[in-house]
């Protein structure tokens, strides 16, 4: 029998691997960054990102644009700048009800 924490971790991973693109981007960024980090820039070409996430270019760009409009990130063709890491965490908590890494 899985413990409650293990079960929630499993549910979170399943949700992120098959869920909304914004959730997947949020999880990816949070997994690469430290909780109290500032001036966060992730160097990554967009073509590498849509390959990494296994989605079409338009799907990735649409999700990045939504996050930019919400003032959570900014991006260029070669980098993602995190403006509000806490909002990414809140997005995951809101959508899947759980995000353990920052506890």
Low-confidence stretches: none
Order of adjacent strands in the largest pleated sheet: 1-3-2
**Count of discrete alpha- or pi-helical segments spanning 4 or more residues:** 5
Number of domains: 1
The CATH architecture term is: Orthogonal Bundle
The coarse overall form would be globular
**What profile does the largest beta sheet have?**
3 strands, antiparallel
What's the total count of β strands?
Answer: 3
CATH class: Mainly Alpha
What would the average pLDDT be, to the nearest integer?
82
Class of secondary structure makeup: mainly alpha
Described by its quaternary structure, the protein is: single chain
Q: What gyration radius follows from the Cα positions, in whole Å?
A: 14 Å
Distance between the termini: 24 Å
Organism: Candidatus Barnesiella excrementipullorum
InterPro entries: HTH_CRP, RmlC-like_jellyroll, WH_DNA-bd_sf
GO molecular function: DNA binding
Pfam family, one: HTH_Crp_2
